[in-house]
Amino acid sequence: MKHLPSERHTLSILVDNEAGVLARIVGLFSARGYNIESLTVADVSDDHAVSRITVVTNGPPPVIDQIMAQLDRLVPVHRVVDLTDWGPHVEREMALVKVAGAGEKRVEALRLADIFRARPVDTSINSFVFEVSGSSEKVNQFITLMREVGLVEVARTGVVAIARGAEAV
Amino acid sequence: MGTEQTGAEIVVQALTDLGVEVVFGYPGGAVLPIYDALFQQNRIRHILVRHEQAAVHAAEGYARASGKVGVVLVTSGPGATNAVTGITDALMDSIPLVVLTGQVPTHLIGTDAFQECDTVGITRHCSKHNYLVKETAKLGPVLHEAFYIARSGRPGPVVIDIPKDVQIMKARYDKPGVISHKTYKPQVKGDLAAIEAAVDMLAAAERPILYTGGGIINSGPVASQLLRELAKVTGAPVTSTLMGLGALPDDHPQFLGMLGMHGSYEANMAMNKCDLMLCLGARFDDRVTGRLDAFSPGSRKIHVDIDRSSFNKTVRVDLTIQGDVGSVMEDMLKVWRARGHKTTDQKAWWGQIAGWRSRNSFGFEQKGESLLPQKAIQRLYEMTKAKKPIISTEVGQHQMWAAQHFGFHDPNKWLTSGGLGTMGYGLPAAIGAQLAFPGALVIDIAGEASIQMNIQELGTAMQYRLPVKIFIINNEYMGMVRQWQELNHGGRYSESYSDSLPDFVKLAEAYGWKGIVIEGPHDLDAGIQAMMDHPGPVVVDCRVAKLANCFPMIPSGAAHTDMILSAADEVGPADDDAKALV
Ligand SMILES: Cc1ncc(C[n+]2csc(CCOP(=O)(O)OP(=O)(O)O)c2C)c(N)n1
Ligand SMILES: [Mg+2]
Questions:
Q1: Domain final residue, candidates A54, A86, A118
Q2: Strand duo A119-124 + A127-134: pairing
Q3: Neighbouring residues of A20: CB distance < 8 A, sequence distance ≥ 6
Q4: A99 domain residue, yes or no
């Protein structure tokens, strides 16, 4: 089964917001040899009882099914949804991108940032920190362009995702 | 109820409310308050083992034999880490346990305090679930929830780590009503449409087979009855995994014996050639499937399991039914009858099976003077079967020979470490089973190497006057290791000889047990009889042929159809891929 082509899937996992739950999820991935491309987690309920973990993983379809089943049987997991299978959904990522330079490069950096709707959130005489958000591809593309104009370092959130439309998953 | 109690008192009260009769444990600094609370009551019996690993195996044996949850109590640090092997064993074999571990007081957690270890971290992936209880008020609810989780769904071990201050502090405890969990809701009933589809597939099959596993034992004795009915109405042959032995009586005409690496030829061939496989509470373990791409290539497969993650894990199946296997079989029988299905004509199929059976794959031939291990187990079975014994084993050849040559007629009589293959399991497991059934004949069929892994438990059995019998198949080798070295590593017996063995009779006597030696075929029956006649615990050192191999065998990486039936079969040297397999 491992020979089938790999697919990228975005999973949304609602879990008890308790100590050790994240370790349980991450440990499951490492113990069973599943991939994690990105992972985000934050409390998403009024009463701080539930967190949403968004995992981007990849693997052949049977492995993705296994991942879903393995996650689903963890006691503190409320619900696991494979958003990629579920249907239309929005995926977003944010990055903070630091660029340093002077003169024409600095102007070019600002110009490109404008095209990507990246906002400067920190400015010094020879640097910017841009905040860019959007699909992972857009963020990637922005970072690639910034290399040309003095990229220093990047911090990324990883993907958060939610289904389109009025319904909750 | 209503008044405040210490955490330790709450633990004992909750265990009492949960119907716990026996706790297996070992004291230490971080659990002294609980031991103090145990001292001051007489409803729960504490069994003092000699090593915490044995506490867990004893609880497993108790659970497996009685169908109840096994309970363990150990201290922090080394107490908890010693328990890890047993906890992992219980996870692999789906045994319901609740393991209470002491922990350093909450304000010292994370400071590398004396006897501190990250118990919840260490056991996170070898338990079904675990808790660190930081407030005394939560102890009661957590204990009740832990029992619910341990025994429901796919059973497993649940660890509760309790810091010492939480045991001392006071809180109210109220016995909760029915437990339900906000996220954990095991599915018991199978989907009816899927069950109907399964029944129709079964009724249309020409070469069906029922492939049954430990899930049937876990589901409870009713499931074994239902299996017997399902076998009857379908007329299908039945094979069982190591863990499922006893669900169908060994001498049932439709029973093909155990399948898998050391299973019967007919079971493995029938699995290979069937057109419909109904898997009931088994999980397509690699010991069962052999080479995956050659596993039952022409069949449609239905898988019934309570754990969704067992589906399509290694073998793709055509239909899955999630639910308790007992409940699903009950529904299948209803549907079968409602649809008026008749037992299909399987004459050709049974004819084929008869051909495979005639190979007599569990047969063995007496050569030379020495006692064959298979013979020893066969006689042990014949001479004890009227007493319906409970059998535990260690791990190795003797375990496989016991599975092959000891006949099991009822569920819950066969306690063996299947998934983890833990040497040292058998003696403590026998102790646990004997506690659950004080009047039963309980025998640990052991190897001379394995038995030394928890030999200190001779003391536990003595202390509680438990008449456990240990039947050591003494071949002076880690026989299973030696066999693999013979088959895969050019006969280089690297470190697999059991040197400097103790005098088992003297060792037994040192602990107050009776010791018996069986030297060879001539005193086999007398030795077994003497073992049975002695009312107390007995160690039998049964000296057997040293170099016997366990056959039949599917070599690692081979298909069911490539089974080696006897030593005479040509075995080519294993290639590197095959050697890499365990
Ligand atoms: C704790 C543990 N360590 C190592 C092994 C690997 N192992 C499997 S069988 C075996 C030999 C067992 O020897 P013995 O108890 O004499 O049984 P025999 O095979 O001779 O019947 C070993 C070392 C194991 N299963 N468990
Ligand atoms: Mg041996």
A1: A86
A2: antiparallel
A3: B120, B121, B124, B132
A4: yes
- For residues B259 and B342, state if they share a domain: yes
What is the domain range of residue A109?
Answer: 90-162
A104 and A140: one domain?
yes
From the CA of B477, how far away is ligand 2's center (Å)? 4
Question: Does a structural domain hold residue B91?
Answer: yes
| Rounded alpha-carbon distances, angstroms, from residue B261 to B341, B363, B460, B494, B546 | 35, 16, 35, 23, 21
Tokens of B405: 């040559």
Q: Which residue among A58, A86, A114 closes a domain?
A: A86
Mark whether A17 and A79 lie in a shared domain.
yes
| A112: number of Cβ within 10 Å | 18
| pLDDT lower than 70: segments of chain B | 1-2, 570-573
Do residues A141 and A154 both lie within one domain? yes
Ligand 1 atom at minimum distance from B446 CA:
15
Contact present, A52 and A13 (Cβ < 8 Å): yes
Two tokens at A132? 């860019």
Tell me: do A59 and A130 sit in the same domain. Answer: no
Inspect the interface and report whether the beta carbons of B125 and A27 lie closer than 8 Å.
Answer: yes
- Cα–Cα distance between B328 and B313 in angstroms, integer? 21
Residues B339 and B394 in one domain: no
Token representation of residue A63: 């492995």
Strand partners, B302: B278, B319
Tell me which of B53, B478, B496, B501 to substitute to probe ligand 1's pocket, judged by most ligand atoms within 8 Å of the beta carbon: B478
- In degrees and rounded to multiples of 5, residue A133 shows phi and psi of -140, 160
B340 within some domain? yes
Is A25 in the same domain as A54? yes
Question: What one-character DSSP code corresponds to residue B190?
Answer: P
Of B124, B181, B311, the CB nearest to A24: B124
Q: Report if residue A2 sits inside a domain.
A: no
**Is B167 within a domain?**
yes
Catalytic center residues of B: 52, 114-115, 164, 480
Kindly state whether residues A18 and A80 are assigned to the same domain.
yes
Residues A97 and A149 in one domain: yes
Q: Are residues B309 and B416 in the same domain?
A: no
* Predicted model pTM: 0.96
Q: What is the ipTM of this complex?
A: 0.91
Half-sphere exposure of B556 (CA within 13 A, CB side): 16
Contact B120 A20 (CB under 8 A): yes
Number of domains making up chain B: 3
What order do you get walking across the sheet with A50-59 strand by strand? Answer: A38-43, A50-59, A7-16, A77-82
Q: Do A105 and A75 reside in the same domain of the chain?
A: no
Q: Find the CB nearest A78 among B121, B124, B183.
A: B183
List the pLDDT tens digit at each of the 169 positions of chain A.
557 899 999 999 999 999 899 999 999 999 999 999 999 999 999 999 999 999 999 999 999 999 999 999 999 999 999 999 999 999 999 999 999 999 999 999 999 999 999 999 999 999 999 999 999 999 999 999 999 999 999 999 999 999 999 988 8
Predicted confidence (pLDDT) per residue in B522-558, tens digit? 999 999 999 999 999 999 999 999 999 999 999 888 9
- Please name the amino acid found at residue A111: R
Enumerate residues lining ligand 1, CB below 6 A.
B 394-398, 421-423, 447-450, 473, 475, 477-481
Residue numbers of the domain that contains B429: 373-550
d(CA B253, CA A18): 53
pLDDT digits (tens, 9 = 90+) for B5-19: 999 999 999 999 999
* B312 to A62: CB separation less than 8 angstroms, yes or no: yes
CB atoms within 10 A of CB B529: 13
Q: Which residue of A has its CA nearest to B152?
A: A75
What token pair was written down for B139? 């102890």
Which of B295, B298, B293 is CA-nearest to residue B282? B295
Angle in degrees, CA B130, B136, B140, rounded to 5: 65
Within 10 angstroms of residue B2's Cβ, the number of other Cβ atoms is 7
